[in-house]
Amino acid sequence: MLAVAVPIVCAATAALVLRNIELIPTIFPACKIKRLTGLNCASCGATRSTLALLRGDIKTAFWYNPMYIAFLCWLGYLYTRLVVSLAVRPYRRYVPKIDVWKAVAIGIIIVAFMIIRNMPFYQAIFF
Q1: Residue 107, pLDDT score
Q2: How far apart are CA 70 and CA 108, in angstroms?
């Protein structure tokens, strides 16, 4: 039942957002890290990226924040694995296993992305 409910709720939310897309910048505040430091954090551009995805503009969404698109793909993979495991083996559902080394690797990737994202050559390539 959860496998059906999640996409329906996501679709309804997307329809609501697209209907009131001009109100989005007033609802979500600007990034506080960028305002205080002048640097982009790992999630800067995620709201704009989400709005671009809702409009169907994948290239622009990737341009705003490529790490966020990778995160959404990973969440989609985990959701698909969960739904498939519930369909195939309902008595034994899929539980993702993230050990310490994977968590450290993800942390290093996020920090490296934040550093690279604030370099002048990144700004010249993507902006």
Answers
A1: 92
A2: 15
